[in-house]
Amino acid sequence: MITYPKYKAAAAHVSPVYFDIDKTVDKACDLIAEAARQGVQLLAFPESFIPGYPHWGRIVAPIETDALFGEMCARGLRIDGPEIARIRSAAKMHEVVVSIGFNEGTNASVGCLWNANVLIGSDGALLNHHRKLVPTYVEKLFWANGDGSGLKVSETALGRIGMLICGENANPLARYTLMAQGEQVHISSYPSVAPARNIDGSGGYDIQDGIRIRAASHSFEAKVFNIVASAPFDATARKFLEFLGDDKLALLDNGSPTVSMIIDPTGKPVSEIFEKDEGLCIGEIDLSKALPVKRIHDVVGYYNRFDIFDLRVNTAKNSPISWVDARESAMPRSSCEEQRPDDGIEEQSRHHE
């Protein structure tokens, strides 16, 4: 018999200790413990939380930011590194499912980074590792394209959980890919502020409106709960960036702050809405609430025409190199498969970056 869990979830509307990896990991572990004390079973952190979002990209010319990019590369985490291991240990200790964004590097290149997110089970297991498919706007100056290997929904005791990073939540095909895997809880992560285009605050784009529209739209279309996690722009970020000058920082000060909340399958908030002050944005998730609205409009069930529409998704993991044995390339494929030496080359090619 199918059951529909009911539990507390939270968006961590908190800032990193900007560009300080150790202190930010400490803060994340403390928040996991605090969430557990409040009965939270699923906790989502903002985009690029460890060690912080590269805000200078929209307010400083690229030619002036080589040193900042170097600072960012020096803070490229590895999925199997000690920082993620500490988060996993905290999740396991407090039995909380954790989603957290981080700046990811690779041993294949000193200058290749991804905007990544990891979903960790309440037992500390790595449930999913997702890299942002397309860095948004000026993010292309920092991060490489991700791939489809992490575009999946994870089966947990709290339901089937999927997540997308910031602008990905405006990508209908990426969203539908998660819907079609039976997503029940969606996590949306965002940075802290969208800079104003002009010093007087005019122009630019209101990221709060963008978040509200995207989050409500996905919840309503997919009939899922949506945990929206954003970060305030705090004093540690301002201090790190103060060398840019007051005129540049004013573009951030006058920008549109992001927002955190939890939305139900009808597109309505079921939590407080956090904007500037830090805190845990807590709401109740009751997966049974999706049933009556799914009956009305189910785009991955009866309310579609799969004989007309067809979506194919490549879930292969990108790699800069593939190893080929010259002896194999000279033989027919069937012979190669029969005579393939057990030398571990194939395994290396799958995992090499």
TrEMBL record:
One of its GO terms (molecular function) is nitrilase activity. Residues 327-353 are annotated as: Disordered. Keywords: Hydrolase. Residues 7-287 form the CN hydrolase domain. The active site is at residue 47. The keyword Disulfide bond does not apply. It comes from the Bacteria. Gene3D superfamilies: Carbon-nitrogen hydrolase. The keyword Transit peptide does not apply. InterPro entries: C-N_Hydrolase (IPR003010), C-N_Hydrolase_sf (IPR036526), Nitrilase/CN_hydratase_CS (IPR000132), Nitrilases_CHs (IPR044149). It holds the Pfam family CN_hydrolase. Belongs to the carbon-nitrogen hydrolase superfamily. Nitrilase family. This is Predicted amidohydrolase.
